[in-house]
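Case study.
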Amino acid sequence: MLQVENLSSCYGRIEVLHGVDLEVHSGEIVSVVGANGAGKTTLLKCLSGVQPASGGKVHFRGEDISTRPAHRRTSLGLAQAPEGRQIFTNLTVEENLRLGAYLFNDDRIDKDMEDAFRLFPILKERRNLSAGGLSGGQQQMLAVARALMSRPSCLLLDEPSMGLAPKLVEQILDVVKNLRSLEVTVLMVEQNALAALGISDRGYVMETGRIVMSGPAEELIADEGVREAYLGI
Amino acid sequence: MSEFLQFLFSGITVGSVYALVALGFILIFNASGVVNFAQGEFVMLGGMITYFTYSAGVPLAAAAVFAILVTCLAGVALNKLAIGPARGASVVSLIIITIGASIFLRGLAQVVFDKQLHRFPSISGDDPISIGGATILPQSLWIIGGALGAFLALYLFFSHTLTGKAVLATANNKLAAQLVGIGTNNMMTLSFALSAAVGALGGVLMTPVTLTSYDVGLTLALKGFAGAILGGMGSPFGALAGGLLVGLIEAMTAGYISSEYKDAVAFIVILLVLFVMPNGLFGRSALERV
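After joint prediction, the assembly is written out as follows.
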């Protein structure tokens, strides 16, 4: 579904991604784990198009999207829930969700919104409140729910558990796990490696802008080196 | 009483012009966080282009529509040629760019048009309507109607249309806006075009009463900006109310104290209000969790 070949990207003159290769198949949940500053977020930003790539190719459903602007990748079914609660704080929860479906104008929006409320019931209670007033965890849920409103076939999740209480982490990862039944493919970036790999089919380990290891999630969890470096066991 | 009514009428008329300028301000501010100090020049262009097109023999209505369209294009050009290339610069730099653009437009108008004062005929003649011993010009009613109409249109745009919400979303979080599929550059272009149109409408409506020349923009921008701030930068209702208030304060000061003081009193009142209510009269305080 998503093929990344030799992708590199720079901030100014400093290259932070050095030829990343990665593949996500339809229906999979794939995690990219690694330490802070390994380039995980930059990788996702290049895939969604908000960060320009300086080299390499990104193919999505067989189409080369390397030079497409971000808003025209969303329309192909590639959605990103960005890192750090990037919601529209000046709008209500419901307006945030409605804008998630900005590209659509049909009856399915109401149904999708009900689905989103079923995944995150707290958002339904707060639907008419300003999104800026939500707690951190609720904002994170809203960011994920908003991304789902764009009817993605592939969802890019950036640190969905960042800064959340353990109970909320579990809740949000449960939702991610259940996306499989909605036929949404997931590429997730996480520092919380154990939790992320625990619900994934496959994983990639990233270090200073390179993929250093990849394989089935259980194998990575079992690997001595990975356990020591990232899982803290 | 009739004296008071007279001041009231003139205050509302002038205030409506300020309100139109203020509405133009918040349109661009809502999309980009930028205060466009070339807003007054949009008003000037509206009046001047209408006058010169009308003088060339074009019917007044057509000349007015033409002026509004050309000003729209000027707004889009301002965004594409001056704001766009500086994308990524801080908001303060962008504001300084708009000040430069305003000086440029004023100079251009001086060269392309001239330095004279101009007016063209009112829409419904110049016979004053007498109400309760005071009089009001029919054109004043047009100005007030124009301000109310523009307010209503913008209010509906921001609160009831998806495009309006997309403009607000773009200003609030550009990255997230792109990620939900909003073409953020198009939203900026749209805001500049609408803002220029609202400004030009003000220019077309006010010129028969207040006359126009290449340099009317500066004062109007200041007063309109004051109105927008007073009302609470961001909400269309605040812009309308703030603009009207500035006009009323001016007219009352000019009437009861002295017209020498009208600007001073207007700005003092605004400062006092902002000391007590930093978000303006109708502004929402920014509610954000860190």
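Observations recorded in class. The longest strand of chain B covers residues 129-131. Strands of chain B lie at 129-131, 134-136. We will return to this complex in the next lecture.
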